[in-house]
Design goal:
Order of helices and strands: HHHHHHHH
Helix content: over 70%
Distance between the termini: 42 Å
Shape: flat
Low-confidence stretches: none
């Protein structure tokens, strides 16, 4: 039996949960390790997707402010994530092509990338400062979201937003598949 309605989950509690988890991960005692940075960036992507989905229920100023906050936190953490991915790629290259790594292994930039993150960057005050800044942005956003009143979601508008997102993703996929 097919149902002729769509059950829509409340966006505000889901968004608050994503931000709460991010605040917990960026707490004052936390230092950015690979898993933490990855988890926070995933939560920020989910938060941006949720706020985009609710864009029809929010005024433009609120949407822009919250979306920008989530992007800013993601960009603060992007350097750590990129370094982590580069380190994993270099380790994979070292396994598959040891002769190549022996030739370029003396390069200082590669040596810095290959170091464990605990010994290279996480103890610096600059890193702690950036992580604290991300935490503050998240706390402010979490506080503001408590007072957002999106109203009753219109299923048709939300399904149109989902369809629009699906269409954009489909186009990007086709373009990437046809010309990698």
């Amino acid at each position: 039996m097919l149902l002729n309605y769509v059950k829509i989950k409340d966006i505000k509690p889901a968004l608050s949960e994503y931000i709460r988890d991010s605040v917990r991960l960026t707490g004052p005692d936390s230092l950015p390790d690979d898993k933490t940075v990855h988890d926070i960036r995933v939560l920020m992507k989910k938060s941006r997707a949720a706020i985009k989905l609710a864009s029809t229920l929010l005024d433009q100023e609120t949407f822009t402010r919250e979306y920008s906050a989530f992007r800013e936190v993601g960009s603060i953490l992007s350097q750590w994530r990129e370094t982590s991915v580069q380190r994993k790629l270099l380790k994979d290259i070292r396994k598959k092509h040891p002769e190549l790594m022996s030739q370029i292994g003396s390069d200082e930039r590669i040596a810095v990338l290959m170091k464990k993150p605990e010994t290279s960057s996480s103890s610096s005050p600059e890193v702690k400062e950036k992580f604290t800044a991300a935490n503050e942005i998240l706390k402010k956003s979490w506080y503001r979201i408590r007072f957002i009143n999106p109203g009753i979601p219109d299923p048709e508008k939300m399904l149109k937003e989902l369809d629009k997102s699906y269409g954009l993703a489909k186009e990007c996929y086709i373009i990437a598949r046809n010309s990698p």
